[in-house]
């Protein structure tokens, strides 16, 4: 059924054979009211004998349109001048109650706002609204109609928002939580408006007569409350008036009223796909998935039957969002792809700028799904195309800057996963510049996204061992997220936990263990609290925090705590991987690897071997499909397994595993030395230990000296992170030289290593006193010899 929601936004066409072959728009002007009506500019006034106005292009502040005929029965026509202005001389007839004015647009043009200029004698005296005639090319009608509706609706939303905020401030109730609630209500109202305006702009149906037409005009005049009252006062108006009625309740921050309006709509128009879609979109915005699903599943077959491609596409898109949230990924992917195909068709067939944002949105949704499933090449293609679209749109409309920042962040995330770190940094930094500008313009809306970008760039800096930069970015993000979580813990506690965890990781790497424990424990407490009410969303976060705390406890020789935490994390990971292996297998492998390390350290080698075998098998399977993502993990698994075989004197197996790991890590280091060179040094060291044990001293020396040179360079650039590794390499070379009877070299290496460990033990005794003691024993044995 045709929707009335775009009523009166295109010119009415004269009947065939009528006196004018071009489209004309008409409205009534009451002579007895003209003296009370204000005009577009101060110089334009209503009088008892004239009607003045202005004809403009595309929007109220648009350029003037000259040479447009404005006429009325019994009155000489006027022609708009170069400035778009016109003046009609009205008949001096006291008995006349109205004048029907007609505008004859140029060929191929339409009047957008004829319903706004339709005045009723009972209401116009107090309105004093400007008389502006808005024309646009017919081919662009959909775009400019949508912008008109969007602009008028935003004026209503801002008026309501500022009024509510002022009321809170007057009552002394403008707390952070109340301000946050208002911002959420404003955001939801704007989302409802955007969707409604997009659909309304495509439907040039006449509004009909009566209350609905009058309410429509009142809305465009910025009088939403009067429009709602007019609809509510008219019996039997629910069917034609429901779209505007539901929207008006939403714009006035009245979701309960909107829910009643939409429920009434589908009750009175059960065969309308537009009614069911609007019902569903409203409930989706209210996070009522059951009612949203009900509406979408009703709307889809009706829209298909009506061949309404726009509604089919939007219904599929929103259904896919729900399916993805329900973990029905195959269905979601199919629906996103069908929606994308429809959006592409509409963009080619009609005004591209109206549909390209939806093309980009569907691409982003598909990219996020692929990213979640670790299908990074596919995700990259989707994100690159969506970024190109948003850049193009933002070059003409600053409102799309936010979408550009989102697209940059998505692509940067994939680049980081694919170890393309330089590219990821460039993308994150560009996104951060945009986020800072937006956050200054509207902090309530954009601060959360600024914190997210800060957190992401900090994470990249951390893995690149740019620790000072990472800490500064994390701490800025933490300050923002603490403030947000205090105002709205339900919405922002999860992101606060993410930043706490990241600061814990950074602090652990810098051997600031007390800080790391504080951050980890706070993050774990948040995750457990959130998982108690929403386990699907937060159990994986609980497992991550348990794993990270266990690693810290291992470093501090608190093995019993570490084991309990890892075993709990492993149970969670296995359960999640059983349901969704594509998503959770990598995390399962990581947790198995950590438990294997603990078992090896505790002498439980049989358990460790089983765990390493499972880890290597998982990563080999993952590398077969996504080598660029999982080769670093496979190298780590092989290296760790090689160390276990070395401990058990299974040197041939150890050598094969370590040589494969070294080959992978050398290749990766050629792509990104900052990230992978430390791992190359570790593998060289392990191969040196194996070669020494096999009495292949010359081969062992080559490995160990190369590792020492790498670690000397790393420690010189970043001693806080790499000095301990350099001390370990010195000790390994000292042991080799002792076995090879190169006593002076061995002494120098032991003494330098011991001095470093003793200095480190002053600030972190739990970690380094035992290592210093081992080197001291080596030196004593050497000197006693």
Strands of the biggest beta sheet: in what spatial order? Answer: 1-6-3-4
Report the average pLDDT across residues. 85
Q: Structural class, please?
A: mainly alpha
Residue windows where pLDDT falls under 50 for at least 5 positions: 1-48, 119-130
What's the β-strand tally? 8
Name the overall outline: elongated
Strand coverage percent: 5-15%
Strands, helices and their partners?
Blueprint: E1 25-29, E2 50-57, E3 69-72, E4 75-79, E5 85-89, E6 99-104, E7 109-111, E8 132-137, H1 141-171, H2 176-201, H3 211-220, H4 224-233, H5 238-251, H6 255-268, H7 273-285, H8 289-305, H9 309-325, H10 329-349, H11 352-372, H12 376-394, H13 401-417, H14 421-441, H15 443-463, H16 467-487, H17 489-509, H18 513-533, H19 535-555, H20 559-579, H21 581-601, H22 605-625, H23 627-647, H24 651-671, H25 673-693, H26 697-717, H27 719-739, H28 743-763, H29 765-784
Parallel strand pairs: 2-8
Antiparallel strand pairs: 1-6, 2-5, 3-4, 3-6, 7-8
Keyword list:
785 residues; mainly alpha; 4-stranded antiparallel β-sheet; 4-stranded mixed β-sheet; 29 helices; elongated
What does this structure look like?
The structure is a single chain. α2 (176-201) packs antiparallel against α5 and α17 (489-509) runs antiparallel to α18 (513-533). The longest helix has 31 residues, at 141-171. It is built from 29 helices and eight strands. It has 785 residues and is mostly helical. The protein is elongated, with a radius of gyration of 35 Å.
